[in-house]
UniProtKB/TrEMBL annotation:
Subunit structure: Tetramer of 2 alpha and 2 beta subunits.
Protein EC: 1.2.4.1
Protein name: Pyruvate dehydrogenase E1 component subunit alpha
Catalytic EC class: oxidoreductase
PANTHER family: PYRUVATE DEHYDROGENASE E1 COMPONENT SUBUNIT ALPHA (PTHR11516:SF60), PYRUVATE DEHYDROGENASE E1 COMPONENT, ALPHA SUBUNIT BACTERIAL AND ORGANELLAR (PTHR11516)
Amino acid sequence: MALSHVATASRSQLLNPLTILLSSSLRRPISTDTTPITVETSVPFTGHKCEPPSRTVETNPQELLTFFKDMALMRRMEIAADSLYKAKLIRGFCHLYDGQEAVAVGMEAALTQKDCIITAYRDHCIFLGRGGTLLESFAELMGRQDGCSRGKGGSMHFYKKEGGFYGGHGIVGAQVPLGCGLAFAQKYSKDENVTFALYGDGAANQGQLFEALNMVALWDLPAILVCENNHYGMGTAEWRAAKSPAYYKRGDYVPGLKVDGMDALAVKRACKFAKEHALKNGPIILEMDTYRYHGHSMSDPGSTYRTRDEITGIRQERDPIERIRKLILAHDLATEKELKDIEKEARKDVDEAIAKAKESPMPDPSELFTNIYVKDCGLEGHRLMGKGSS
């Protein structure tokens, strides 16, 4: 499946941009070449109660190579998390994002960190995109002090308020009303920013989603509800769970847009469109047509309700990393070897972060009594009770 059709910029105009060393920082560019390249998204957008945006997307060598590096790092992180879970270094729930990386990087390319993102429990890559580090990620997964939530949240509860990331949430759909509350605060403050509230197709039937949507529509809040439709809930295909799986239309009176969520450039275009719409007109729903390679969680093999041929077919035809790789190679922005070197660097960065995370100590037992009350009010009473006082 072809990723894009080149519309402008000849190959002779594009210089090889791999001129500086790679770093482990996800947000640091690997090129400064911003020569414009215009492409078309893999498939058209489909709109509901709105005129869909053009398929034309402007990009450049710097962005394409950064997309590739970021997604390669995300993919390697999730594969490593799989191994750590099987080695029992990660306990509890763990939901992996490999296959869906285009949503994270494309969304980030359209936003600033003053915009807010809130999501469900498949949150590792969103956190990384918001400026989180590999060390913070792996330390949190392994319940260590250096984790982004000080080892107390685990896989489902990554958080980075200073990066505009208001967390992963374990209760299905519960983050959507919270995200709408963030959008209310943004409109109240008149700061011209938006909130992206992400949820899965399994959560799309939750009553609280429709209640929140009613409120944001009444008040014209700058809320963008993003359904990451990976086509399977907890072992259940979308068609078995939803009478109408056209999730971009589910808002009825709220406009919607269906997006190829395996195409990072299409996601960027759609998110820019949605942000402009939300600031001017109020809420909009984006349905990201994406796919998860792993099961729902690490306890789900992911092969009892779908065929291995289906998974293989998606990998071969729609994989978000391979699509960007093909575009980079088509424009002579890098060689196959240089792209392989980026992937090797990602593996090295992940391995180093895991080694450091393993050295991080477990949280002190006193942490059991913190973050319960506002400003730890009542903490001393809990400590006394912990000593066996009656």
